[in-house]
Automatic annotation (TrEMBL), chain A:
PROSITE patterns assigned to the protein according to its UniProt record, in alphabetical order: ABC_TM1
Designated name of the protein: Amino acid ABC transporter permease
Record keyword S-adenosyl-L-methionine present: no
SUPFAM superfamilies, per database record: MetI-like
InterPro entries listed in its UniProt record: AA_ABC_transptr_permease_3TM, ArtM/GltK/GlnP/TcyL/YhdX-like, MetI-like, MetI-like_sf
Pfam families: BPD_transp_1 (PF00528)
Organism lineage: Bacteria, Pseudomonadati, Pseudomonadota, Alphaproteobacteria, Hyphomicrobiales
Every ABC transmembrane type-1 domain range: 29-219
Cell compartment(s), UniProt: Cell inner membrane; Cell membrane
UniProtKB/TrEMBL annotation, chain B:
Family, as annotated: Belongs to the binding-protein-dependent transport system permease family. HisMQ subfamily.
Ranges of residues in domain ABC transmembrane type-1: 23-220
Cited InterPro entries: AA_ABC_transptr_permease_3TM, ArtM/GltK/GlnP/TcyL/YhdX-like, MetI-like, MetI-like_sf
One record GO biological process: amino acid transport
Species this protein is from: Phyllobacterium brassicacearum
Membrane association type: Multi-pass membrane protein
Protein name: ABC transporter permease
GO molecular function: transmembrane transporter activity
Species lineage: Bacteria, Pseudomonadati, Pseudomonadota, Alphaproteobacteria, Hyphomicrobiales
Length: 252, 235
């Protein structure tokens, strides 16, 4: 068993790492990480806008975002991927690679989840910050840009990291629309070997475990550090500031 | 392909039967794995609270594995991997008894047990230790103090994450399509292949999932309200 696993890794490590890259599209672990990092990088700014819209006093900004958040919370990601697979080529009128389809879905999905995290972070700061900033002459955007968001976002770093972890786990669903990621590479290996599915999928699980475990661990360490720093900075009344650092994320 | 027409699907008895079968299978998988997950979660919790380092380390490893490996990969490992290692008589039996659904239930249930046990554990940990001491001082034994004093409070604390994770479990039942379980997403894709009315059938599938998820969330909100004594006396 162990020998089989070592043999598979020795023979196929390049395929698992970068897919068929020089002769085909980039794939494997590299693509999984690029896809997740890009999704988070694009979803993050979007999530701030969504959170601000959700906290807005105008219903025409608040309602569409509330609906979006409930739809992403209530509909399986798989269903949303099928929607993008159908709609993105239809709307753009081009033959879109599955990577882009998956990226679109993940950006919308994770932005909706992150927006809840951002919103919780802003709400937990309390009204006083906004009032003080306004009293000092900041407008709404000035107060957000220089006072509220820097504090809220700093507290949220661990949550963003754990959203990154769930994004890595979400990218596996790209398998359904043939996104060339790590899961896809593993099933290619499995199709070539045919006789050792357990070993192949065990390797797959172990690779994901190693990556996600280390990132979760980093998030945990960061969270403790930020909590301590916040407690030290603001003294005894820091309870409200510590609260949003609690890791909120969707599981998959 | 003509314009938007829901009735093309909703008036076709064959498609309706497929959708209904899909909904039933989705609930079989979701409820089956929920029950499996809850049972395992309570066992894991008991093991975690029991003395001895081995049990504790086992639970920590179990939780860590199931939370850090994507659910889809866990399902694939079960269905494509472990299924092939089983003795012949067992795989024959499974194959003739809807193996896809059984492995979906096992995979999702084992995965969800990790989340449920962590929810329950953090719920129990937020009950003050004085409660146990007070219950023991009043003559309760360990088990009876757990049953009548700590668990009711712990479960109440754990309700919000438990409900969130129950919704996730319901949504994750759609992953069964990858290993070929004939649940709702599977039915949606089949009907799409037969009718070519992609937009209509995706809309129906999405609304069905959304409806049931919102129903679970609303039920959860009601339970949370009922369980909160402050809210009950206010009403």
């Amino acid at each position: 068993m162990i020998n089989d696993i070592i043999a598979i890794i020795r023979d196929y490590w390049l395929l698992l790492l970068i897919g068929q890259y020089p002769n085909g599209p980039l794939g494997g672990l590299a693509n999984t990480l690029i896809l997740s990092a890009l999704s988070i990088a694009l979803a993050f700014p979007l999530s701030i806008l969504l959170a601000l819209a959700r906290l807005s006093k105008w219903p025409f900004l608040r309602w569409p975002v509330t609906v979006l958040v409930y739809v992403t919370r209530g509909v399986p990601l798989l269903m949303l991927i099928l929607w993008s697979y159908f709609l993105v080529p239809l709307l753009t009128g081009a033959d879109v690679p599955s990577f882009v389809t998956m990226l679109t879905t993940l950006v919308i999905y994770q932005a909706a989840f992150l927006s809840e995290v951002v919103r919780a972070g802003i709400v937990a700061l309390g009204q006083g910050q906004m009032e003080a900033a306004k009293a000092l002459g900041h407008g709404y955007f000035g107060a957000m840009r220089f006072v509220i968001l820097p504090q809220a976002l700093y507290n949220m770093i661990p949550s963003i990291l754990s959203t990154f972890v769930s994004t890595i786990k979400d990218t596996t669903l790209g398998y359904v629309i043939n996104v060339p990621d790590l899961t896809f590479a593993a099933s290619q290996v499995n199709n070539q070997l045919l006789t050792q599915p357990f070993q192949v999928f065990l390797i797959l699980a172990l690779i994901y475990y190693a990556i996600c475990w280390s990132l979760t661990h980093v998030a945990y360490r960061l969270e403790r550090r930020i909590t301590r720093k916040r407690a030290g900075l603001t003294g005894a009344g820091a309870a409200a500031v510590i609260a949003p650092a609690k890791i909120i994320s969707e599981q998959l | 392909m003509t314009g938007f027409d829901l009735s093309a699907i909703l008036t076709n008895p064959e498609f309706i039967a497929m959708l209904l079968h899909g909904i039933v299978m989705t609930f079989v998988i979701a409820i089956g794995s929920w029950l499996l997950a809850m049972t395992l979660a309570i066992l894991l919790l008991a093991l975690r609270f029991s003395p001895g380092r081995f049990g504790n380390a086992f639970v920590a490893g179990y939780v860590s594995y199931h939370r850090n490996v994507p659910t889809l990969v866990q399902l694939m490992l079960w269905y494509f991997g472990i299924f092939t290692l089983l003795p012949d008589w067992l795989s024959y039996w499974l194959a003739s008894h809807n193996a896809e659904a059984i492995f979906a239930i096992i995979g999702l249930g084992l995965c969800q047990a990790a989340y449920f046990s962590e929810d329950l554990r953090s719920g129990l940990r937020s009950v003050s230790p004085g409660q146990m001491e007070a219950a023991r001082a009043l003559g309760h034994g360990y088990l009876s103090a757990m049953r009548f004093v700590l668990m009711p409070q712990g479960v109440r604390n754990a309700l919000p994450p438990l409900i969130n994770h129950s919704v996730s479990l319901f949504k994750n039942s759609s992953l069964g399509v990858v290993i070929g379980a004939s649940e709702l997403t599977h039915a949606v894709k089949e009907i799409e292949n037969l009718s070519f009315r992609t937009f209509e059938i995706y809309l129906i599938g999405t609304l069905l999932y959304l409806f049931f998820s919102l129903l679970i969330m609303a039920g959860g909100a009601y339970l949370t309200m009922r369980a909160d004594p402050a809210a009950r006396t206010r009403a």
